[in-house]
Description:
Order of helices and strands: HHHEEEHHEHEHEEHEHEEHEHHHEHEEEH
Distance between the termini: 33 Å
Number of helices: 15
Oligomer: single chain
Number of strands: 15
Amino acid sequence: MLGEYRISGRRAAEISASIERAVGTGELKPGQLLPPMRELAALLGVNPNTVAAAYRTLRERGVIETAGRRGSRVRPAPATTGRDHIRVDVPEGVRDVSSGNPDAALLPPLAPAFAAAAKEGDRAPVLYGQTAVEPELARIARAGLDADGVPEGPLAVVSGSLDAVERVLAAHLKPGDTVAVEDPGWGRTLDLVPALGLRTVPVGVDDEGPRADDVRRALADGARALIVTDRAQNPTGAAVSASRARALRDVLEGHPEVLLIEDDHGHGIVDLPLHPLAGTTRHWALVRSVAKAYGPDLRLAVLTGDAVTVDRVHGRQRLGPGWVSRLTQRAVVRLWADGTVDGPAVAAAYGRRRQALIDALARRGVAAHGRSGMNVWVPVPDETGAVARLLHAGWAVAPGARFRMSAPPGIRITVSTLAEDEIGPLADAVAAAVGPAPARVYG
């Protein structure tokens, strides 16, 4: 059952650590069956309750899953290993279009904003006990949210979109609860949910966002939370349309106790309007990161939501980091207030590159998708073969397995830095590697 690996330990913490360590090193493989609790207890000479406690810890950490009499096994994508190992190592001389990074040439200079923020900090240092949110940041952020039709709610500042998702899930759910997630979807979210001891149920995605029928089924089956990417969905580029938002709100109105989390990380780099779902359910949150428009290293996002949710996020922050640096918050205020980034121009630049590649692929008989953002999703019949053939041709793309649960295979191409003269050669290479793609988009 376990091959050459021997689980060790006398206490529950030691047994769970032994198993988790083996999963992390690959000695225990995804999907591998673990010994029944009584059998392992006999082998280790411990009480079966000790093994039961170890297995419970591993379930809560997202390392294993238990299916009644079928026993316990390592999760197909255990949180210990994550999805970052499903990537392409880019050899020298190969063009990297796999990273998902913004174009550094379109990011603003940060030195003036931080210098101004530092001067302000010298005049009025931020000390313990002061408010966690820079007042001017709250004012500017709230004005933008109001303009996009996001319901009134208190604000929190967190360390990026994923930090917000984690804090909101932890504020409301308990291990074993089910979260409906987009499939394909952001790989880090697909790793995070089981790492919190939560279960995932996939929701299909098309160009207009999560499919309402899939969401309806997931919520009817007991999902307690739904995570939606409003625009620039990673990896597909989907954006929630007005008609899809109406359909999703209709579904959510029948499940008012479901926790709704919306990720608008594409704010500032997309030219499509926001159609928020916020306020449809009792507990909700919407997060806006500055990573794509201003730089990933800023690690700052603004979160709004219902009063209970935001209060719980603030309370947990106080017990951990306390607050996101007010120096960074003030620098972001400068960037926003000075209009350092021309959002429409950035969105247009990404849009031209994205559409140019989609059109070039279409002329070669390859279906591709990317309604917004900086990525293009290409369904393929053989994902591993397509990635390998493209690498051989001089192009590194992201394997779709990083983003999928049950959706059909595909590859993600980041267009953010594509030059005009690269579009044709890349499209030729993709067409040669994958052939004409099926009309079916995501699954």
